[in-house]
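Sorry to interrupt, but I need a hand with the structure work. It will help me judge whether the discrete encoding reads sensibly. Write everything out right here, beneath this request:
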Amino acid sequence: MSDYIMGLPTEPERIRSKTNAVLLDHHLTWAGLIEGESFVDFGCASGEVVRAVSSKVGSERVLGLDADPRMIAYSAEESDRRALNNVEYRQTTIAGLGSTGLDDSNFDHAWARFFLEYMIEPVQVVREMVRIVRPGGKVTLIDIDGNCIWHHPMPAKLRDDLDEVMEDLKTTGFDPHAGARLAGYATQAGLVDVRQHVEPYHWIVGPPDEATSAAWSMKLHGIQETYLARIAPDKQRLASFFDELLEFILAPATMTWSLAYLVQGIKQ
């Protein structure tokens, strides 16, 4: 379970706007998604993955899971608008074994993309993913290393404030280094033939383009509101930090980067 750090009403639209269709297709290709595979997306958010998969697997079942009813409603409405008959969504709090309520060994492929970074017990989530896929089925994990934290050159005071905020966010389950831990999670959950690929995710040198600037603005302001209202309401002194961090990231002399880790294992 987790306490999502960007759970604002505008979050479905933010996720949809930042999802790159070309990158998503690349990740699905790396994962080996093929026609005829049933598929479960753990933490489906605004449903971008579910809708992309629905056109690739023929008539097979594609299921999206998320704890946020707003995400489920948004995703279902968009899928209905596109008349996707093989798609369904289920609101559920994803935690340990049995938490999804799905049958054992019932799907060909379980997937979690940019999701485990928010989980307090990510290995337990992966074990639930393993439980619901058939023997020989695939479990794909994709996440970020360096999320929000790798910037250069960073003023000492801004770095100190960022470190303090990150320590507070850890209490919700957020892990900026989740990507580098995925292979370990897969092994601990009992998957075999684990393979891994690492590639750049954020790579911003100099002033970012308009779309990237807008994405960072929405992300940091979303975290700011949640952080000050719910996670650390006693730290209003850090209210200006988020604007300062955004200004720094968007500055011409700043470099910001992170890595995406792609991991997949097979259920015995």
Observations:
- The radius of gyration is 18 Å.
- The chain has a mean pLDDT of 95.
- The longest strand covers residues 192-205.
- Residues 145 and 177 are 4 Å apart (CA to CA).
